[in-house]
Specification:
The structure is a single chain. The chain starts with 8 loop residues before the first strand and ends in a 10-residue tail after the last helix. It is α/β, with parallel strands linked by helices and 301 residues long. The longest helix has 31 residues. Helix 4 links the parallel strand 4 and strand 5. It has a single domain, classed as NAD(P)-binding Rossmann-like Domain (Rossmann fold). The radius of gyration is 20 Å and the shape is globular. Strands 3-2-1-4-5-6-7-8 form an eight-stranded mixed sheet, with helices on both faces.
Length: 301
């Protein structure tokens, strides 16, 4: 097959269902060779089914695409290394990593246990680190050997990480951390011809169907705004050679809308050029709050 990503070698983690599956299929249809990584776990990260990834591979091969399944754990250091090795051994290299794998353990902050907190941050934040670190090690070695590198890291943040989300303190913390991680990767890795961008996708998945049931309902007719396939074209473009000049961005995507987030910029400021008295701070802050742009509300409020 040939297409927009002809010959690109792509890893998509958590590609057995939902958004990850849409990404894997879209890349393959555009000529990419795809490593479909998935543990086949439940939404809470429990159980394991190696057939989950293979079903997506079979679907890709059915329309003439190239793909291979991988069932390693993204948050296991050695396992993450094997994910990269699967791409290199099977297809001869690696160009794109889409860090998509994740779980949720939704709980109000007062009820969240340390075990739930650790489980969510492990898969999301540690998983992004482990897979990304092994990928970068491979690309750096290629660079040092004089072989051309035109690589992409595509991370997955969330509106929950950018604005917060009631009942998702661990998930929101992990996703906010991923957005920050993306900024650092972008700044540090440009010298190796590696870009890093992040997604904040809104679509119908196992995670969102339970939390936002009414919003995620499939319409009877017309454009299905929440179809996960709507997110895939931007992801495919980010993985292509055409996106080489774009890095350090967070793309908020829903339906046919593409937004580049404008967060963590400085807002209104006041400088007294002297030490403040505590009694002066309140009026100064009130003035700053009156001048700033309204914040997006926390999800669920």
């Amino acid at each position: 097959m040939s297409g927009f990503c002809d010959g690109r070698i792509v890893i998509v983690t958590g590609a057995g269902n939902g958004l990850g599956k849409s990404y894997a299929l879209a890349f393959a249809r555009e000529g990419a060779k795809v490593v479909v990584n998935d543990l086949g776990v439940s939404l809470a990260g429990e159980g394991r089914d190696t057939a989950t990834a293979q079903k997506v591979v079979d679907e890709i091969k059915a329309f003439g695409g190239q793909a291979v399944a991988n069932g390693d754990d993204v948050a296991d250091w050695e396992g993450a290394g094997r994910i990269i090795k699967t791409a290199v051994d099977t297809f001869g290299g690696l160009d794109v990593v889409v860090n998509n794998a994740g779980i949720v353990r939704d709980r109000m902050f007062v009820s969240c246990t340390v075990e739930e907190w650790d489980a969510v941050l492990r898969v999301h934040l540690r998983g992004h680190f482990c897979v990304g670190s092994h990928a970068v090690a491979y690309w750096r070695a290629e660079n040092k050997a004089g072989r051309p590198v035109d690589a992409r890291i595509i991370n997955t943040s969330s509106g929950a990480g950018l604005q917060g989300s009631i009942g998702q303190s661990a998930y929101a913390s992990a996703k906010g951390g991923i957005a920050s991680l993306t900024l650092v990767q972008s700044a540090e890795l440009a010298r190796y011809n590696i870009t890093a961008n992040a997604l904040a996708p809104a679509a119908r998945t196992r995670m969102t169907e339970g939390a936002f049931a009414d919003k995620m309902k499939k319409p009877v007719d017309g454009f299905d705004v929440q179809d996960p396939d709507n997110i895939a074209p931007t992801v495919v473009w980010l993985g292509s050679k055409d996106s080489a000049a774009v890095t350090g961005c967070v793309f908020d995507i829903e339906g046919g809308r593409i937004t580049i987030e404008d967060g963590w910029n400085d807002g209104p400021s006041v400088d007294k050029h002297a030490k403040w008295d505590p009694r002066e701070v309140g009026p100064a802050v009130a003035d700053l709050l009156a001048k700033r742009k309204p914040q997006k509300k926390v999800w669920g409020t």
